[in-house]
Amino acid sequence: MLMTRTARAAGLLGGIAIAAAALFASLMFGHIPVSVADLYSSVVAYNPGDLEQLVIRSERVPRTLIALAVGAGLAVAGVLMQALTRNPLASPGILGINAGALFLVVVGANLFSLTAPTQLIWLAFAGSGLAAMLVYFLGHEPGRGISPIRTVLAGVALTALFVSFSQGLLILNQERFESMLFWIAGSVSGRSLEAVAPLLPLIAGGLVFSLLLGRQLNLLGLDDEVTQGLGLNVAQIRLLTGLMVILLAGTSVAIAGMIGFVGLIVPHIARGLLGTDHRWLIPGAAVIGGALLMGSDTLARLLIPPREVPIGVVTALMGTPLFLHLARRVGQKS
Amino acid sequence: MSKTLVLRGSADRWSVRIQPAVLWIGLGLASLLCLSALVSLSLGTYPTTVPQIIQALSGSEDLSGIRLILLEIRLPRILMAILAGGALGLAGLLLQGLVQNPLASPDVVGITSGASAAAVFTLWITGSAGGTPLLVPAAITGALLVTVLLVMLSWRGGVSPTRLVLIGVGLAAGLSAVTTLILVVSPDATAMSAYIWLTGSLYAARWSDVFGLAPVVIGGLAVAIAVARHLDLHALGSDLALSLGSNVNRQRLVHLLLAVVLAGGAVAYAGALGFIGLLAPHMARRIIRTGHVGLTVISALLGGLILVWADLAGRVLFIPRDLPAGLFVAGVGAPFFVFLLYRLRRQS
Amino acid sequence: MIYPTRPSGHRSPVVLFFLGITFLCLIPAVVAGTVTVDHALGVATVETPPERVVSLYQGATDTAVALGIKPVGMVESWTEKPMYRYLRPYLSDVRMLGLETQPDLEGIALLNPDLIVAARNRHLAIFPLLEQIAPTVVIEDVYDFKTLLSVMARATGKQAQGRCLLEHWQARARDFRSRIRKNLGDAWPTEVAILSFRADHARIYYGGFARSVLEELGFLAPEPHRQEGWGIKLTSQESIPAMDAETIFLFMQDDPAVQRTYRSWTAHPLWQNLKAVTAGEVYPVNPVTWNMGAGILAANLMLDDLYRHYRLPDTLPEVLDAC
Which CATH architecture has domain A5-30+69-327? Predict the structure, then answer.
């Protein structure tokens, strides 16, 4: 862990460098070989007639941007969730937010025939919000704040619930089922920038706001009595944090479907490097999350061409061993 | 002071406490179960009345068409529902006691995910959208492998419930990603079949399946009753249980193993129906407050009841389509479950 | 006695005559008794001729109609529910048995059938149950319409009809091959890709019904498409070059989300650059006959499309008139 302020600043800059490298790789690699010159021209002197430049602009740039935004959004949402629930193993996937999004998307597509991309995005967003509120409500013990293990279990139970209903609807309508599979698996490709343009600023806004909340978040880890003694309005901080979680996680899931583990693992990596001060943790997590997802997307493209491995699977394959390693260290006193 | 009956084995190696009230409730539920089975037997694409059932079964008239339907199509399916539902209800109770949390279920420790991943993988590899004889052994193997992994990873001088859950959740999430990957690359019919299996379905249950699961469930029930008193002790907290002479770690393992065998077996035959393991013990607790022997029997009976009715709904509501029972379990379970969680919140 | 179970390819008139005589001699035996039929999961003993036939998959329904049989029960079609339009005239008052992947077992039992036709990779799990209801024949692969034809013809006692259909098909295939070779000259054989579009992805077919028919007719698959498996799903438009071939046949459902995806993919410059697109060789075809029907009638309809498409004279009689 980096102790001094300079070390942390250096670490953060290093992280940004890695993210830049991941960005570069994401733009360079894919089914169609492109050269660095193509990349340069597509930025500086764009010629739509040139196939390589076109591919970069129309295919690679959108997915790179989406991966960056969604990766940062999920990672920071994870940090916020872990602070809010005081549970180092909280994340959008585990707490049922993904499942809530899935549920409303499936309901919308099946029962109300809402299949346009923009409609699905807003449905997912609403579903995430619904699930987040339910989990918060169920995991909250009156008088004692939020219980870590309760929230995880509430999340698991809600996930089971939402997933069962979604499965039911999908089985009744086979054609919808086929078209939902990729969304369920998670994907940053196939989304046009026009469709997601209104949502990317939301993520950016959420990230900035979370940065500002950094100091208050440091204090959420303390017991309610202590923080009230310090004169802070705990309920207000919790509410704001919760809203940021819904904003970041919900938007991310709405854009890219169910991508797991980013919100879980990245906060831990960031914590390992930068400590528990949220003023460093949040930018660190954003940078690492963006780099991770861009890297995963690149990998997803390169494994089984011309197909792509769904990105949620890549993050799960990378994330599960890490998660298990972390989970082993929890609850050492039985 | 409520009356209790105590049955003991020789040299006190085992003992079982039962309240007479519980016995009556148990008998009542068992009768309800039989009645439900009868109702289910009489409904279907071709509704048969009870006299017809008796005639067909006793073979007095040659209603061979109906006889076939009753004996080979409906009856094995109903029995499978009772067995699988009962097994899941039991497994859920054991896991909730193990984890000391009422929100635990077979899903939580990754049993369902392990079985699901193995089953979906088998369907994909064999290219059988229609199921294959390999499905059941594959699913059981998956459940067992995950449990072994779970115990190995969470054993650190002992088995902490918290760690167990967290590792189980992690394994479940990872396996779920694998399952999704397979669904995505499969041809449509295989993907749909796999998805139906994942929802939990008793379609085409056969007598060989019933004979495969019955010994597991009956044996499991017997063992569960025998170790039920330990669950009572653990509910007091592990420190207290230890001081009362309970070998907490070993018993935890026994409970886990029992839960895995029961849930794994049920899931292998009936699909990923872990939700029953969440519902049945809760409903049981609303009927009788404490006493794990009673809870054990009643959870099993309730689990069977839930699945028999869910299966019936799937069979008759959308004829000629046969919808998976898992759908209706969720449909019935959801409102109850949300209500339950709300009450839990208020209670603590 | 020689009794052919799998009709082979080319036959000389002498052999045909001999077989005809043999068959005539057998008619009394066949009409009165039973026949044993080899199929993918064993041997079935069917009382011939079976009057009540149940079809448990699309291809079997198609083949039943071709053999002049009206099934007493059939499973739903995947689209154009409850049964494909090209088969509707022949299938009034047939009892529907639910989905191909989960047929209504009670319904099947209640129909009291004499023969059930199923597919291995759909109905393996329920096969023991089906056998208890009625003699059941199982075909290994849903796309293998020729084995299906010969097995069903044998099981239903309509070998003559079956043989006629098969020979008619082979005659048409020969005719097509010679005409297209003359028509295209050096450009023959052509590399053909088979694509389809869905609501959020596109597909390339490596195997399946359409591919097998096209192969029989002499068409080739582009090198990257000569792989095992049914095909692949593509989610990124960057992979469009993988779809390329000299000619592209594509199909899709009439659904707004699907149409949206189709328009978006075909508007992409990578699509415009494909060999087939620049040569103007991209043709939408009917998904029902090219992908879902999977029987001898669907195969004939597919061949009709190809005759029409390549503007070759189609002089042989219609399949249902010829047999």
Answer: Orthogonal Bundle (1.10)
Q: Would you say B271 and B85 are in contact if contact means Cβ atoms under 8 Å apart?
A: no
Task: Judge whether B134 and B122 are in contact, CB under 8 Å.
Answer: yes
What is the mean predicted confidence (pLDDT) over B178-202? Answer: 86
Q: Which residue of C has its CA nearest to A189?
A: C236
Domain containing residue B240: CATH number: 1.10.3470.10
pLDDT at C167: 93
For the residues B27-46, what does the mean pLDDT come to? Answer: 88
pLDDT at B70 over 90: no
Mean pLDDT of chain A: 82
Cβ separation C270–A55 shorter than 8 A: yes
pLDDT tens profile A296-332: 999 998 888 888 888 888 888 888 887 787 777 765 4
* Number of domains into which chain B is organized: 1
In a domain, B137, yes or no: yes
Backbone torsions φ then ψ of B22, nearest 5 degrees: -65, -40
Helix (H) or strand (E) holding C192: strand C192-197
Cα-based torsion angle of the residue sequence A265, A271, A272, A277 in order, rounded to the nearest 10 degrees: 180
Q: What is the pLDDT of residues B288-324, one digit of tens each?
A: 877 788 889 999 999 999 999 999 998 888 776 788 8
Residue B161 structural domain:
42-322
Would you state the pLDDT for residue C13? 67
Residue of C239, C244, C259, C262 to mutate, testing the A interface (most A Cβ within 10 Å of its Cβ): C239
Residues in C closer than 8 angstroms to B193, CB to CB, are 101
Q: Using the CB atoms, write b or e for A274-286: b if 16+ within 10 Å.
A: beebbbbbbbbbb
Task: Tell me whether residues B72 and C106 touch, CB distance under 8 A.
Answer: no
Return the pLDDT at C54.
Answer: 95
Q: Which residues of B touch A332 (CB under 8 A)?
A: 156, 160, 163
Q: Is residue B5 part of a domain?
A: no
Average the pLDDT over C191-205 and give the result. Answer: 91
Whether residue B339 lies inside any domain: the answer is no
Whether residue A104 contacts residue A125, with contact meaning beta carbons closer than 8 Å, is answered with no
Query: What is the rounded distance in angstroms from the CA atom of residue C170 to the CA atom of residue C183?
Result: 20
Residue B226 forms part of a structural domain: yes
Lowest mean pLDDT, pick from A158-162, A207-211, A224-228, B263-267: A224-228
List the domain boundaries for chain A. 5-30+69-327
Tokens matching residue C305: 């499309």
Interchain contact C123–B (C-beta under 8 A):
yes
What domains lie within chain C, and their CATH numbers? 13-165 (3.40.50.1980), 189-292 (3.40.50.1980)
Q: Is B143:B115 a contact under the CB 8 Å cutoff?
A: yes
Torsion, Cα B295 B298 B300 B306, to 10 degrees, reads -130
Choose the mutation target among C105, C116, C120 for the interface with B, i.e. most B CBs under 10 Å: C105
pLDDT score, position B253: 83
